[in-house]
UniProtKB/TrEMBL annotation, chain A:
Lineage, opening ranks: Bacteria, Pseudomonadati, Pseudomonadota, Gammaproteobacteria, Chromatiales
Pfam family, any one: MinE
Entry's Gene Ontology molecular function annotations: identical protein binding
Transmembrane portions of the chain: none
Entry keyword set: Cell cycle, Cell division
Region (Disordered): 1-20
Functional note: Prevents the cell division inhibition by proteins MinC and MinD at internal division sites while permitting inhibition at polar sites. This ensures cell division at the proper site by restricting the formation of a division septum at the midpoint of the long axis of the cell.
Name of protein: Cell division topological specificity factor
HAMAP family: MinE
Membership in a protein family: Belongs to the MinE family.
Any Gene Ontology biological process: regulation of division septum assembly
From TrEMBL, chain B:
InterPro entries: CobQ/CobB/MinD/ParA_Nub-bd_dom (IPR002586), MinD (IPR010223), MinD_FleN (IPR025501), P-loop_NTPase (IPR027417), ParA/MinD_ATPase (IPR050625)
CDD domains for this protein: MinD (cd02036)
Chain positions recorded as ATP binding sites: K11, G12, G13, V14, G15, K16, T17, T18
Keyword Ion transport in record: no
Source organism of the structure: Thiospirillum jenense
PANTHER family: SEPTUM SITE-DETERMINING PROTEIN MIND HOMOLOG, CHLOROPLASTIC (PTHR43384:SF6), SEPTUM SITE-DETERMINING PROTEIN MIND HOMOLOG, CHLOROPLASTIC-RELATED (PTHR43384)
Family indicated by similarity: Belongs to the ParA family. MinD subfamily.
Name of this protein: Septum site-determining protein MinD
Residue intervals of the CobQ/CobB/MinD/ParA nucleotide binding domain: 5-226
Length: 103, 269
């Protein structure tokens, strides 16, 4: 028959963080953080302002917010890839047309 | 030409000045003409750790501004005649250290010294940038603790992009990891990042491991570099570190708890 202690032990096994020592948690957090920092480090410093200016241009026609523009920068060997992804709101097509007609 | 070594970390309070004092004294005791420079303008402390605070007349900024020559500003250590200290200025003008001025002083020192140890201030502001700019080697002082490891990684990024060697496409700065305030007992209990953990995260060559030790505070209280306390674990760990820095193979000590653990076997200590 299982005791209370067993119950809690089994429960803890299912919980990813509780069984780990604090050193293991520290290492995992640092590995993620350092990988992210290093990625950001290699990016050109103009990316944030590029993103803002693109957003300003789009806003002349469509109302989008900063979160709907994503800028990805990757390096593969000698090639640098800049990928822009802009999510337009549902009615963007009509608003865009109207804006273009008015101009 | 002298080897220029920066003692850096990003984070404050991890043991940069303790390390600069120990490395300087250690190299000088091995017979190398060595000078230790305090780059922490406005908050000078190296003189206090080295026990020569009452002998400061002129400082680094006086030399850069031409108000004193190098020989007037350098303080010879009373315990070892191969060791000299160039104290920082207490001025509040952070930009007193100009890139050209620092370069000129390092060039002049390079003619008569074998090692120039640059004790960097914490942070990534002007003083820290000047301390690392001309470096040939960097000793990155890190505590086995999340904030310190992260800041060390940031500093590694700066060393590889903002130093003179990076800007001129020269051979990169040789980077060394010095883990300080290490407590093997806590590592065994899973409460502290291990030597291998930190090495894996930072991918750096390990220069030394200095155990958490009461000797460090005792030494700074007295103004004696802890490396001179040969009875202490920290003192002996710094001696090993200095020998390793000069190219000797020295097994790692003080990284296992009590009896020799798996870390000890791993590093052959």
């Amino acid at each position: 028959m299982s005791s209370f202690a067993d119950y809690f032990r089994n429960n803890e096994a299912g919980n990813t963080n509780r069984n780990k020592t604090s050193a293991v948690i520290a290492k995992e957090r640092l590995q993620i953080l350092v990988a992210y920092d290093r990625m950001a480090r290699d990016r050109p410093s103009y990316l944030p302002s590029l993103k803002q200016e693109i957003l300003d241009v789009i806003r002349k026609y469509v109302n989008v917010d900063l979160a709907s523009v994503s800028v990805r920068y990757e390096q593969e060997g000698n090639q640098e890839i800049l990928e822009l992804n802009i999510v337009l709101p549902e009615n963007a097509g009509r608003v865009l047309e109207a804006a273009l007609e008015n101009n | 030409m002298a080897k220029i070594v920066v003692i850096t970390s990003g984070k404050g309070g991890v043991g940069k000045t303790t390390t600069a004092a120990a490395m300087g004294m250690g190299l000088a005791m091995l017979g190398h003409r060595t000078v230790v420079i305090d780059f922490d303008v406005g908050l000078r402390n190296l003189d206090l750790i080295m026990g020569c605070e009452r002998r400061v007349v002129y400082d680094f900024v006086n030399v850069i501004n031409g108000e004193a020559n190098l020989n007037q500003a350098l303080i010879r250590d009373k315990r070892c005649d191969k060791l000299y200290i160039l104290p920082a200025s207490q001025t509040r003008d952070k930009n007193a250290l100009t890139k050209d001025g620092v370069g000129q002083v390092l060039e002049d020192l390079g003619r008569s010294y074998e090692y120039v140890i640059c004790d960097s201030p914490a942070g990534i502001e002007h003083g820290a940038m000047m301390a690392m700019y001309y470096a040939d080697d960097a000793i990155v002082v890190t505590n086995p603790e999340v904030a310190s490891v992260r800041d060390s990684d940031r500093m590694l990024g700066i060393l590889s992009s903002k130093s003179k060697r990076a800007e001129t496409d020269a051979e990169p700065i040789i980077e060394h990891l010095l883990l300080t305030r290490y407590s093997p007992e806590r590592v065994v209990r899973g409460e502290m990042l291990s030597v291998t953990d930190v090495q894996e995260i930072l991918s750096l060559k390990l220069l030394g491991v200095i155990p958490e030790s009461q000797a460090v505070l005792n030494a700074s209280n007295a103004g004696v570099p802890v490396i001179l306390d040969a009875e202490s674990d920290a003192g002996r760990a710094y001696q090993d570190t200095v020998l390793r820095f000069t190219g000797k193979e020295v097994p790692f000590r003080f990284i296992e708890a009590g009896k020799r653990g798996f870390l000890g076997r791993l590093f052959g200590g």
